[in-house]
Amino acid sequence: MKKVIYIPLDERPCNRLFPMMMAESQHTIEIVSPPIKLLSQKKRTADVEGLWDYVFRQIETSEALIMPLEMMGYGGLLPSRLHHRDNQQRKILIERMKRLKIIAPHLKIYMSALIMRTPQYNSSDEEPDYYEDYGYSLFRNAYLSDKKNRVGLSAKEDEEWNSIEIPEVYQRDYEERRQYNRETLLDILELVESQVIDFMVIPQDDSSEYGYTAIDQQQISEKIRELRLQTKVMMYPGADESGATLLGRCFNELMGQCPKIYPYFSSIYGPALIPKYEDRPMYESLQSHIYAAGCQEAESVREADFILAINCPGKIMEEAPMQGEKDISYTRHRHLLSFAYHIRQWLDMNKPVALADCAFINGGEVELVTLLDDLGILDRLISYKGWNTYCNTLGTSITQGIFAYHQPEVHSVTHHLIYHLLDDLFYQAIIRPQITATLKGKDLSYFDLKTQGALISKEIERQMQRYYQHFIKHSFKNVKITELKAYSPWNRMFEVGLELKIEVE
Q1: Cα–Cα–Cα angle for 406, 411, 416, nearest 5°?
Q2: What is the Cα gyration radius of the chain?
Q3: What are the structural domains of the chain?
Q4: Any idea what DSSP says for residue 421?
Q5: Which of 248, 281, 319, 341 is most buried, most CB within 10 Å of its CB?
Q6: Which of 378, 371, 285, 374 is nearest to 334 (CA)?
Q7: Positive or negative, the Cα torsion across 388, 389, 392, 395?
Q8: Which residues contact residue 310 at a Cβ distance below 8 angstroms, ignoring those fewer than 6 apart?
Q9: What 8-state DSSP symbol labels residue 117?
Q10: Cα first-last separation, the chain
């Protein structure tokens, strides 16, 4: 059994638990990960020294290390947006990373490093306090400035740009931190060149065509080209799926395999559509994720190791809670029944199918899942996911496919399917908006459940059971949910954690 050290991007289930849950489908790999007490807790910085001690204790007996810059360099995802680190701390980080290969030259190191995001709204939930009042202004000021330099502004845009007012102290704080993070990332690229790091991904969270993120992306792209690292460093939209992607690549390389994936979109418009919160067409991101995970695209169904069925919008991507009144293009520009029949046909050919449910942002599609249930094929999938952004879903779907396409542990696959139906479909698309609508009258908010988190989690559990029984009529007949507990990792509504146990007869 091959041992892999996995350091999560943050402590939430999507980053800490999902990759390890996927790996449970195979018994040829052992995942070790630091105790949660060492990790960050939302904005609270992780025990970085403790994490490095943990890593150094494990490396000599491990084949590989998966590590995010944010956790090991800044103490977590949100702390990477809040820190006041100096050049001496950067020097220590770089020296520690070099030491890894000195102590354990055999160790394969897979790293992720985010381009710091620039949210397009006012909220300090995940950003510095001043982002509550000046977040949109910071985004828009950089967006218009960058656009002016690259293509020019209209008279209206120029007027808007000149009217933006941001306190100098806030803008300086924000830009200095971005500069520090960018320069650290550029230094780490040199570690890739010197073979300290074997492979690296640079996901982009909440990317935009212009602005801070685009400026950083350009500088980093130039460095990648300068060092000729295009086969060792990949940059694309994403974030919370990056640990899973690197784990998939790590597993493939340890096993000496390169699975062939045949992608199939539910609409001919899908490959060219640019999803919400991302900066490029679906198909371009798909290629990046396939190769980042150590796979290759198959030219035909026949030669594929598994099928990646991608449910996409017809023409316009909407938020999942809106699907009860979805845009007509979901019907006019997509034939959902044909998509479902194709999935059944592949399953009948004994071709494994991983379903990436990306028609909506922030949740799965009820109509598709009920259709697959009616056809009796929902529980025959090797993966179902439909969470957050397109690339979040895409990356984790590919990795689950990697672990589950060849002689998987059936109980683990079934557990994974039900977990994501409960979370991605029922919670994100249905339950979350329903409960959120009741919070204002209880003096609670989407971003702060105060002392009511446990009570709300109980209601989430009740509704999950209810919707599962209501919508899943023909699938998982031999499966019994024996335990279902929900919790809120960051005491807010955006994400939910589940403790799920099942029995398979």
Answers
A1: 85
A2: 22
A3: 2-119+174-255 (3.40.50), 260-504 (no CATH)
A4: I
A5: 248
A6: 371
A7: positive
A8: 263, 264, 265, 266, 270, 282, 286, 356, 358, 394
A9: P
A10: 28
Between β-strands 296-297 and 260-265, what pairing exists: parallel, antiparallel or unpaired? Answer: parallel
pLDDT per residue as tens digits for the range 227-260: 999 999 999 999 999 999 999 999 999 999 999 9
CA distance 234 to 289: 9
Which amino acid is it at 98? K
For residues 74, 76, 77, 78, the Cα torsion angle rounded to the nearest 10 degrees is -90
Q: pTM for this structure?
A: 0.95
Closest CA to 89 of 112, 68, 69, 115: 69
Q: At what angle do helices 87-103 and 168-193 cross, to 10 degrees?
A: 20
Count of C-beta atoms within a 10 Å radius of residue 246: 30
What is the torsion angle, in degrees rounded to the nearest 10, for the CA atoms of residue 86, residue 92, residue 95 and residue 101?
-120
* pLDDT of 55 higher than 80: yes
Q: Quick check: helix, strand or coil at residue 246?
A: helix
Going through 105-180 in order, the beta strands assigned E by DSSP cover 108-112
| Spatial distance between the Cα atoms of 140 and 103, rounded to a whole number of angstroms | 46
Q: Poorest-confidence range of 69-73, 118-122, 302-306, 496-500? A: 118-122
**Token pair for residue 254?**
């340890």
Residues 364, 365, 371, 373, CA torsion sign? positive
CB 54 within 8 A of CB 60: no
Q: Under DSSP, is residue 504 helix (H, G, I), strand (E, B) or coil?
A: strand
Separation of alpha carbons 445 and 270, rounded Å: 35
Q: Which of 336, 367, 329 has its CA nearest to residue 265?
A: 336
pLDDT tens-digit series, residues 435-460:
999 998 888 999 999 999 999 999 99
Of 327, 345, 331, 325, nearest to 266 (Cα)? 331
Q: Two tokens at 454?
A: 């446990």
Mean pLDDT of the chain: 96
The values of phi and psi at residue 89, to 5°, are -65, -35
How far, in whole angstroms, is CA 237 from its chain's centroid?
9
Tokens matching residue 161: 């740009």
Residue 8 Ramachandran class (φ > 0 left, ψ -120 to 50 alpha, else beta): beta
Strand 233-237 and strand 479-487: the pairing is unpaired
Both structure tokens of 191: 């570690």
Token couple for 349:
């050919």
Which region holds residue 139: left if phi is over 0, alpha if psi is between -120 and 50, else beta? alpha
Contact (CB, 8 A) for 283 and 264: no
Nearest-angstrom CA–CA distance, 104 and 61: 9
State the residue for tokens 């589950």.
404
